[in-house]
Design brief:
This protein has one domain. It is mainly alpha-helical. The chain is about 75% helix and about 0% strand.
């Protein structure tokens, strides 16, 4: 069974942790239904998006590594269309605060920044590079 890189797994876990913290902070500090709902929906969509993206990328890289012509990359467009539709539905039809929605949706950026800083400080290879790039003899 294919597994995502440790860095991608840390980003996904950070998304979940930050989502819980942001929503809990909204519940405790703001207590406005539209603000908390905006945080919840935004954070939920970004976590769901990253989960699906991780699954697609793992499948895509596994297919490429084994020489298969997989179709995981073909699922990126429907995923993006679904995501854009979900954002539009949330903003247009749910009783949410749009700014809170954007804050909740943007937690993935914080997760990526934290992971990048962690990787740089720990001396690990960032997700965009592989160790074979440095093995040129």
């Amino acid at each position: 069974m294919p597994v995502a890189s440790p860095s991608i797994q840390r980003i996904e876990r950070l998304n979940y942790v930050i989502a819980i913290i942001v929503v809990a902070a909204g519940l405790v500090l703001v207590q406005s239904r539209s603000v908390v709902l905006g945080l919840m929906v935004g954070a939920g969509l970004t976590c769901l998006n990253f989960f699906v993206l991780r699954k697609l990328v793992v499948k895509w890289t596994e297919d490429a590594a084994t020489g298969k012509g997989g179709n995981a990359q073909l699922l990126m467009l429907p995923k993006m269309i679904f995501l854009m539709g979900a954002v539009a539905v949330a903003v247009l039809f749910l009783p949410i605060d749009v700014i809170s929605f954007v804050v909740g949706y943007s937690i993935f950026i914080i997760s990526i920044v934290i992971e990048t800083a962690y990787s740089a400080l720990a001396g690990t290879t960032p997700p965009a590079q592989s160790s074979s790039e440095h093995d040129h003899g």
